[in-house]
Design brief:
- The complex is a heterodimer of chains A (about 375) and B (about 90).
- Chain A is mostly beta strands and about 375 residues long.
- Chain A has a single domain, classed as YVTN repeat-like/Quinoprotein amine dehydrogenase (Methylamine Dehydrogenase, Chain H).
- Helices cover about 0% and strands about 40% of the residues of chain A.
- In chain A, the strands form 7 sheets. Chain A has a 4-stranded antiparallel beta sheet with strand order 3-2-1-28. Chain A has a 4-stranded antiparallel beta sheet with strand order 4-5-6-7, with no helix packed on it. A 4-stranded antiparallel beta sheet of chain A has the order 8-9-10-11.
- In chain A, a hairpin with a 6-residue loop joins strand 24 and strand 25.
- Chain A is globular and about 60 Å long.
- By secondary structure, chain B is an alpha+beta fold.
- Chain B has a single domain, classed as Roll (Ubiquitin-like (UB roll)).
- In chain B, about 20% of the residues lie in helices and about 25% in strands.
- A 5-stranded mixed beta sheet of chain B has the order 2-1-5-3-4, covered by helices on one side.
- Classes of the chains: A mainly beta (about 375), B alpha+beta (about 90).
- Chains A and B meet through loops of A and helix 2 of B.
Chain lengths: ~375, ~90
């Protein structure tokens, strides 16, 4: 069970701990507290904890000065700037053949949107997804990065387009715990792609997802799908969940095909999904009103949990604000620990909640944080 | 020789002292400066070597013209200021 998680926000990185001394404190006091702040005032867009060596990687977006990466090897006490992914030099006169929206994407880093450790048997290997549409790999713990050329050079990559952002991006990277060469990624907007040889060859997977925002004849086109987040069950990696722009989809064949889960109340729209580490039938979602409004339905913050692979959902509300709450939860801002009992999520309006009972009840850890981009347990 | 000066705000990320550098164009001047301070390059120029979107450069008080190519001429004795554009907030 994890006693520590990290919260990446618009104004810094916060580390929450559940301390021994706090457990013995006054009844009713939160057992969780902010134990450390890093990069206070700076825009920390994502954080990753590497279970193989305990290191932390934080992505910062300095606006004027660009996107930077920092690494800590002492639990966040000190940080060193390390290399940021760098796009290759664009060949002179290069004209893309198939840009989906008539405009080629820029070959320059806009945002680090996904970070994932490689397999347990490949120390130092990291994966990084970016806007616009880049997948990078490091073999030295983030000291250097190389773009994955097979994916970048695939003409179908040029057809990707932005969903919400102006540019397409890779936001989800799932490394198969059984075989680290098998990696599945989620792209907004570009569907679900998979490789079985560490990125030498890629297959456009994700059959069955549906894009209501496309003309009828293209709604099932795999390369136009907008999976907001893709999550893989560690104990059963063939079980994958997608919170998609159009709803919730589930796969039992490693992302090759998906089935839509229909009839989800109060809404099937949202950004994050977390799947139980041991039980592939259990997953959590934070619903919102689509499309342009993007606020909780009726001003009530709720978490939707299924325990039967999407046949039914419990709408969990205990401890969550139920009137005039307009918190939106971004795709990386919900996480579950390695037991499946502890969850935490943070919102665009700076609220942070934690659950110790699989989502049945929640406690508010803060209502005053900066906008939350990512919540990540140490696992 | 041109004198290159950087905004104070960049200094908390990467030290960029004032320096006198040779070069007939802005590209030449900045490349020589960054040759001795490679980390600073990524704070000023993007992946493709263009001036970052929300950065600005003034040569003797005049804003540069060629943000991508940095081909603006630099006269001997010029003063180059690398600053943040207000567009970046």
């Amino acid at each position: 069970m994890s006693n520590r998680f990290h919260v990446a926000t618009r104004k810094g990185l916060f580390t929450l701990e559940r301390g021994e001394q706090r457990r013995q404190g006054v009844a009713g006091d939160s057992e969780w507290a902010i134990a450390r702040t890093s990069f206070l005032g700076d825009n920390c867009t994502l954080v990753m904890h590497d279970p193989r060596d305990g290191s932390l990687l934080a992505a910062l977006d300095h606006g004027h000065f660009g996107v930077k990466m920092h690494r800590s090897r002492d639990e966040g006490a000190t940080w060193q700037e390390v290399a940021a992914p760098k796009y290759p030099d664009k060949p002179a006169g290069y004209v893309p053949k198939t840009p989906a929206e008539g405009r080629p994407v820029d070959w320059a880093l806009k945002l680090v949107w996904a970070l994932a450790p490689g397999g347990a048997n490949e120390p130092g290997v990291l994966w990084c997804g970016t806007l616009p549409g880049g997948l990078f790999r490091s073999e030295d713990g983030g000291d250097s990065w190389a773009i994955n050329r097979p994916l970048w050079d695939d003409p179908r990559r040029e057809e990707w387009f932005g969903g919400g952002a102006d540019q397409p991006g890779i936001h989800s990277i799932c490394v198969d715990p059984r075989d680290a060469a098998h990696v599945t990624i989620g792209v907004s907007c570009g569907g679900v792609w998979t490789t079985r040889d560490s990125g030498k060859r890629w297959t456009l997977a994700g059959k069955g997802m549906r894009a209501e925002y496309m003309p009828p004849e293209r709604q099932f086109d795999q390369n136009v799908q907008d999976p907001h987040q893709l999550a893989q069950c560690p104990a059963n990696p063939d079980a994958m969940w997608v919170q998609h722009h159009n709803g919730i989809f589930r796969s039992t064949d490693g992302g090759e095909t998906f089935s839509e889960i229909s009839g989800v109340k109060p809404s099937a729209f949202g950004f994050p999904v977390a799947v139980h580490p041991k039980n592939p039938d259990v997953a959590w979602f934070v619903p919102a009103i689509k499309d342009e409004k993007r606020i909780p339905l009726e001003g009530r913050v709720v978490v939707n949990r299924t325990r039967d692979a999407g046949k039914t959902f419990d709408t969990l509300t205990r401890g969550l604000p139920q009137e005039h709450a307009y918190d939106l939860v971004f795709r990386h801002a919900l996480d579950v620990d390695d037991t499946g009992d502890r969850l935490a999520f943070g919102s665009t309006t700076g609220s942070l909640w934690v659950s110790e009972d699989g989502g049945d009840s929640w406690q508010t850890l803060s209502s005053n944080l900066p906008p939350v981009y990512a919540v990540r347990f140490e696992k | 020789m041109a004198t290159v000066r950087f905004t104070r705000n960049i200094q908390r990320h990467v030290e960029c002292p004032d320096r006198e550098v040779e070069g007939a164009t802005l590209r030449e001047v900045l490349e020589r400066y960054f040759a001795g301070n490679d980390r600073a390059r990524g704070y000023v120029l993007d992946d493709q070597g263009r001036l970052r979107h929300h950065m600005a450069v003034f040569i003797d008080g005049q804003q540069l013209q060629d943000r991508d190519g940095l081909s603006d001429a630099v006269a001997p004795g010029a003063v180059i200021d690398v600053v943040q554009a207000l567009s970046g907030g």
